[in-house]
Specification:
There is one protein chain. About 25% of the residues lie in helices and about 25% in strands. The protein starts with a strand and ends with a strand.
Length: about 350
């Protein structure tokens, strides 16, 4: 049981007191150094009486049932339903944030729904969701709430999915991913300039998280890159990124290239052309990525899954709606019997593209 300080506020483990009396948060590489009552950049971790506390435990920005493909996860029980939720705040400062109303929210009391971990797990089971997703804002910052919810879900046979930027320190990272079954990491770009100037973070920490997940855990991993015109869409950068993925993570890690739309502090940049997404996908495939997709754009061919050995269409997708299914009960291609990387049920689930708000 967590040590509850007050309603929705719990003690945390990753911090230490500095010589000048401030308390340093050691959850992520931002290492916020806080005076009493001061909050970190993420907003939901605070120095309270010489310790770092989480102030959003049991609070959410809302609950919704989505298709798993929306996370996006195309190789983790395709067609299944996932109960999604997040809190407020974020430990990055992305100028292009597409969920800025949640990640930059400071109206905690007026915006939050209440739900303890057991209630979320029970709701997911009742709604016949295969998994629960910690998403909308980065679950790293509500570390304790996410882990406790994942453990409650595991007790009921529900999987856990994290949608994260991967900006987290070694020890909390290990604890966090012990409780997760799948993750989609936002690999936002492949340059330190982009990470430092546009997100307020650093690329190397993200790469270390990716290497850890792939080589030190059994967590299913997929990647997403939001392609922003003029910022991270050069052929050189896409070549370097996809080559690094194949060489360091392996060719079977799916990559998603999604369209940017003008938002938050980058409203002067145009929406990503579909041609740019298709170009990124083509570069990835040419460099050996076996499964590459586009997102936030309609192209059934580029959304579907193909056998990396014989080219057979394995899973047809039209937006979030599944069509063709040419995998056997073991997840292998019906044409050549090559295994498709991922986790699959014997037959596809049928949640479809619908989105359903849930009250807990």
């Amino acid at each position: 049981m967590r040590n509850l300080i007050s309603q929705n506020t719990v003690q945390t483990d990753y911090w230490h007191i500095l010589e000048d009396g401030r308390v340093q948060c050691d959850l992520c590489p931002r290492f916020c150094k806080l005076h009493d009552k001061q909050r970190g950049l993420c907003f939901i971790r605070q120095n309270l009486n010489q310790q770092i506390v989480l102030t959003s435990y049991g609070r959410s920005s809302g609950f919704c049932i989505d298709p798993i493909e929306k996370k996006p996860l195309n190789h983790f029980y395709p067609g299944s339903a996932v109960l999604s939720f997040g809190t407020a705040g974020c430990n990055l400062a992305c100028k292009f944030c597409q969920n800025w109303d949640i990640s930059k929210s400071r109206e905690m009391d007026s915006l939050m729904s209440q739900a303890n971990p057991e209630a979320i797990a029970t709701a997911a089971l009742k709604a016949k969701c295969k998994s629960v997703a910690y998403t909308y804002n980065d679950p790293v910052i509500f570390h304790e709430y996410a882990i406790d919810t994942a453990q409650a879900c595991k007790a009921l046979g529900i999987k856990s999915v994290a949608v994260s930027a991967g900006y987290v320190c070694d020890q909390p990272r290990a604890e966090f991913y012990q409780s997760m079954d799948a993750v989609n990491i936002d690999l936002k770009a492949f340059s330190e300039r982009f990470y430092h100037q546009i997100t307020g973070s650093h690329l190397q920490a993200i790469l270390e998280t990716l290497l850890y997940i792939k080589h030190e855990t059994d967590v299913w991993l997929e990647l997403t890159t939001l392609i922003i015109p003029g910022e991270n869409d050069s052929e050189k950068e896409l070549q370097e990124m996809t080559q690094w993925v194949v060489e360091n993570l392996g060719p079977d890690v799916p990559m998603h290239f999604s369209a940017f739309h003008p938002d938050w502090k980058m409203r002067d940049i145009p929406r990503t052309p579909t041609a740019s997404l298709l170009k990124a996908r083509s570069i990835a495939l040419a460099n050996g990525v076996q499964y590459a997709y586009i997102g936030n754009a309609h192209d059934k061919a580029a959304d579907s899954t193909y056998c990396h050995h014989c080219g057979e269409l394995l899973i047809g997708r039209d937006w979030y709606q599944l069509s063709e299914w040419n995998l056997d009960s073991s997840g292998a291609c019906l044409a050549c019997f090559t295994k498709c990387a991922g986790l699959f049920d014997k037959e596809p689930a049928k949640w479809g593209a619908k989105r359903q708000i849930v009250k807990i």
